[in-house]
Amino acid sequence: MSRIGVFGAGYVGLVTAASLAELGNDVVVRDVVPEKVERLLRGEVPIFEPGLDELLAKNAERLTFTLDAGEVVDGAEFLFVCVDTPPVAYSGDADLSRVWTIVEELPNVEGNPVLVLKSTVPVGTGEKVRAALDQRGLEHVGYASNPEFTAEGRAVRDFMEPDRIVIGAFDPDDGERVEALYASLDAPVVQMDVNSAEMVKLASNAFLMTRISFINEIANVCEATGADVVRVAEGVGLDKRLGPHFLRAGVGWGGSCFPKDSLALKQLAANSGYHFQLLNAVIEVNELQKRRVIGKLERHLGKLRGKRVALLGLAFKAGTDDTREAPSLVLASRLIAEGAEVRAWDPVVDGKQVMPQAEFCMTVQDAVRGADAAVIVTEWDELRDLARREIRELMARPLIVDGRNLLDPAQARAAGFAYEGIGRPVSPSDVLPERLERDREPSTS
Ligand code: UDX
Questions:
Q1: Is 166 in the pocket of ligand 1 (CB under 6 A)?
Q2: CATH number, domain containing residue 89
Q3: Do 218 and 176 share a structural domain?
Q4: Continuous H helices in 136-276
Q5: What is d(CA 295, CA 297) in angstroms, rounded to the nearest whole number?
Q6: Residues 249, 335 share a domain
Q7: 260-303 pLDDT, tens per residue?
Q8: Active site members
Q9: Which domain holds residue 81?
Q10: How many whole angstroms from 442 Cα to the centroid of ligand 1?
Q11: pTM listed for this prediction
C-alpha cells in the first residue's frame, strides 16, 4: 500500500482521495482554503456527492487533511494533482495557474514520487510540467497523466468501477507504478504517451457533448415535424454502433466540465491554427437550446412580462448541488429580463445564494403557487409526480414545460395540464383556453 498526497479538496480531489484510501492507501489531502480544511478535519464534507461522506468516514483513519504542502509531499510515493482548471476570462484557454503553483511550490522532494495529473489540461501540459520539474532539479520526480472520467453525482462509482483507466507517461516505469495503484479494480488499463492521454479526456468529453447537441437538434426537428425524440433516441440507441447513452434531449448541457472543456479544446485547436468547426457548432447549439424554453413559454403565455414562472431544479443535473453553467441560471436571467417573476425550487441547491434575483421556495408546492407555468429544469426524482391534482390547483395556469422529458405527456395531459416537452409532439389540448380565446379575437389592426 502506498502513501499518497493529493493536491486539491474539490470534487475530483476528495473523490480521488477517498477512493484511494478505500483501496488501502494512506492519503494526505492538501487544500489552500483554510475553512475547507477545517471542515474536513471536523469530519464535515464541503460538497454534496452521493456516497462520498460514507467513504470518507469509513476511511477516516487513512485520510489526513492539511494546508501544508510539505506534509503532502513528505514520504509520498504519488502526488495527485486534482486542482480545477477553469477557463481564463476572455480567451477561454484553460487556466493552469493552480497547476503551476503546485509545480513551482513543490517542496524539496525526497525519494522518487510520481506526480499524477488528474485535472483536465490542454495537450502539451505534461511536457511543460516535465520541463519545469527538470529545471527545478526535480528530475527524480516521475510524471503521469491519468485523466479522471468521473461524473458528478456518481463520481465514487465511476472511480471504483471505471470503463477504463488511461495512463500517459514519459517513463514506462512511472506508468507501471500508477497502473499498480489500480490493480484491484476490474477495468481495462490503457497506457500511452502523455499528449495522447491528455487528448483522450478532451476528446471523450467533446464526443459526449456532440451527442447531446446532436440529439437536441434532432429534437428541434422533431418539434417541427411531429416526431417524438424520446422514441427516436430509443430507436437510434439500439444500434450497437451508436449505443443508447447521452441521447437524452433537454435544456442543454452545463456543469463544471463540459462548458469549460469544450472551450479549452476549441482554444487548444485555435491556438494550434486549427478551426474546430464541429465543436463550435456543438457549443452554439447548446447555447440556443438553453434559451428555447423561453420561446415555448411565450407560445403559451404570450408576453412574459408580469407572468409568474416556477423554475423547478437549479442544479445542472440531478444528484448534485452544482450550479456551475447550469441552464437554470440562463433561464432565470432571460425570464427576469423579459419581466417575468421567477420562483425557484431545488432539493439541494441553496437558491438564495446562487439565484438571488428569484424568489427561492423550500417546497415545489410553494414554487408553483399562483404560477402561470412550471418549468422542469433538473430531472430530480421529486418532480416525477409533478402532474398531479394538488399542483394543478395551486397553479394559476396548468402549464408544464418539461425541459428534461421527465414526465409522461399522456399522463400529464390526462391530469389536466397543458404539457410541452423537448422534441415531443404537441397536442391540441396543450393550448391553454385563454390562449385560444386570444387567438380568436378579431385583429384590431
Ligand atoms: C462529465 C463527464 O460525464 C465526465 O466523464 C467528466 O469527467 C466530467 O464531465 P458531469 O459534468 O458531472 O460529467 O455530468 P454528466 O452526467 O456527464 O452530464 C453533463 C451534462 O450533460 C449535464 O448538464 C446533463 O444534464 C447533460 N446531459 C447528459 C444531457 O443533456 N443529455 C444526456 O443524454 C446526458
A1: no
A2: 3.40.50.720
A3: no
A4: 155-160, 172-181, 194-225, 229-237, 258-271
A5: 5
A6: yes
A7: 999 999 999 999 999 999 999 999 999 999 999 999 999 999 99
A8: 257
A9: 3-192
A10: 48
A11: 0.92
